Amino acid sequence: MSALSELYTEIDRCEDCELSRHRSRVVPGEGSEDADLLFIGEAPGWYEDQQGRPFVGPAGHFLDELLLSIGLSREDVYIANVVKCRPPSNRDPLPSEMRACRKWLDRQIELIRPKVIVTLGRYSLAQFLPGDAIGKVHGKARTKEGIIYFAMYHPAAALHQQSLRQVIAEDMLKIPPLLAQAAEVVAEEPKPEQLSMF
After folding, report:
1. What is the CATH number of the domain that holds 37?
2. pLDDT, averaged across the chain
3. What are the contacts of 63-70 at 24+ separation with CB within 8 A?
4. What pLDDT does residue 195 have?
């Protein structure tokens, strides 16, 4: 069993916040365990709660289209959420719920070791770049502790506001160059035997 699978078992038993009382299924995340690209949404919705998988409803179908537009599929990336259980009536996650779930997200990042993290929506953005407004920073990248963070509107926003569909699609096209940039940085890092002792 992989470390990520073991983590899923731990998340499945979690009762650290009220959301655990209302869920049908925990939605830890899915995708490649060594993905260079990690997408982080906000919270599972009704479809996700039923299936135990992230982004399987209408917003997820749009995310699949977006991935296809840059030549990727779900199997190539990792997809998770800030909170792992559906908030009742799809309300926004509360600060206390996000704090309770943060350890799981941090552990996923530690195990997957992505080069690029794409925050989907304002709650995901606030976890990593607090104080930034999604309307101002979407489509922009920032490097922090060796990881490139890239902010995007949540795919669900396009379902409610059609004008954002094109904005989201255009932002998605900026991701492949970021992955290439991250790969170059890794290639330039000296190997341990090349490091001088003096």
Report:
1. 3.40.470.10
2. 93
3. 63/39, 63/120, 63/155, 66/155, 66/168, 66/169, 66/172, 69/169, 69/172, 69/173, 70/172, 70/173, 70/175, 70/176
4. 43
